[in-house]
Specification:
mainly alpha, globular, single chain
């Protein structure tokens, strides 16, 4: 089990209370698909992903980015049991979708970049450290079925 400090808990909750899911989620997923084009192979049914403009304007990418952020909200609400919270998602992504677990880390990195852009100078090193710890636990939990 992960030990969370009061600062880490309040920071994660504060971040998720401030961000606009409909902006941050789509931007993070779009960035991931553009910067790491091999990740596109899991989104073949999303239509045109041929270039950055197509990805940024793709409504299915935007919708899935929003879904990702809502999924992270589940972790925020269950910080003491993220592994079990994500058990079914881990099974889905490993056994049905066969997603490379490294892609979770890539998406987490993109989310951090987008969040830093959204929060600006408020995204201090201490806040980033708390956020990175949270994402590391989420990524580890999503990759649990692969181990």
């Amino acid at each position: 089990m992960v030990e969370w400090t009061d600062f880490e808990r309040s920071t994660i909750q504060d971040i998720f209370s401030k961000i606009d899911y409909a902006v941050v989620g789509p931007l993070a997923l779009s960035r991931c698909l553009i910067v790491y084009p091999w990740t596109q192979r899991y989104f073949g049914k999303f239509g045109n992903l041929y270039n950055a403009a197509a990805i940024m304007g793709n409504p299915m990418v935007a919708a899935h980015g929003l879904t990702v952020l809502r999924g992270l909200e589940r972790a925020v609400k269950n910080m003491d049991d993220i592994k079990n919270t994500y058990f079914e998602l881990s099974v889905l992504h490993s056994e049905k979708l066969h997603v490379d677990p490294d892609n979770f880390r890539l998406l987490a990195d993109c989310l951090t970049i987008v969040l830093a852009g959204q929060l600006g100078t408020a995204f201090t090193p201490a806040i980033q450290a708390a956020f990175q710890k949270f994402l590391a636990v989420v990524v580890n939990s999503l990759g649990r079925q692969y181990q």
